[in-house]
Specification:
Length: 53
């Protein structure tokens, strides 16, 4: 599976089960950081690590 993120965009490329798995991992990570609050995709994109090129 590949994950591309540019400014306010996130593109996941792969098989459906891989994408669902990745989204669940991202949601689980967000919920572990904030109790009883889920992070939106916009919030994830704002706080993600920048790409090292």
């Amino acid at each position: 599976m590949k994950q591309y993120s540019v400014s306010t965009r996130l593109t996941l490329v792969g098989k459906a089960w891989e994408i669902r798995h990745q989204l669940r991992l991202m949601a689980r990570e967000a919920s572990s950081r904030k109790k009883n609050a889920s992070r939106t995709l916009g919030e994830y994109l704002e706080h993600r690590r920048p790409l090292n090129r």
